[in-house]
Amino acid sequence: MSADEICEAKPYHHGDLRRTIIDTALATLKEQQGWQFTLREIARRAQVSHSAPYRHFPDKGALLHELALLGFERLNAAMQDAMGPAMSAPERLRAMAYAYLAFGEENPDLYRLMFSTQAGDPAQIHVDPRAQAPFYLVIEVLERGQEEGTIRGRSALGQATASWAHLHGLTLLSIDSRLVPAKVGDHAIEDALTTLLDGLVSDQTAR
Length: 207
Prior knowledge:
The chain is mainly α.
């Protein structure tokens, strides 16, 4: 009997099948550095029947969609954790920016999946509350800073969009090893984030 046949015949004992499938897919994503896996492979690795994943995910695309949203959820948590209660708005923005970059660098394949069309229509993914949470967290901090006078009084939505574009590009350059010191210097990330904050922080605020 082949290994696949053994897995197919093995009785299901997991208490939370959905979580088991998701955790196995995340581990496989990290190990394989991509999402070329099949649902059959995920089932085999999770030691459940080959039909088990279909109880929660009708196809691989649905599983990738959930992984992408989970990525945004974890990114939001990382950004939240980076902020201290006594921080000013500029300090919070800097802390969140570094947390954003660190998340991408520590989870490069999950980060790429979060923005891949293979995880579904971006118009559907990016309107999900879990995908919106990190973005609106930035808007919240920007608006608070505007009220305090530490952030320039402009469109918080526009400022958040510019910040996202800046950080997304910087994160991709970092995880793809494109920030070569011979080209961008030894402190590219720090310099880039300082430049970003220069455009957001009020002239009267000392950083």
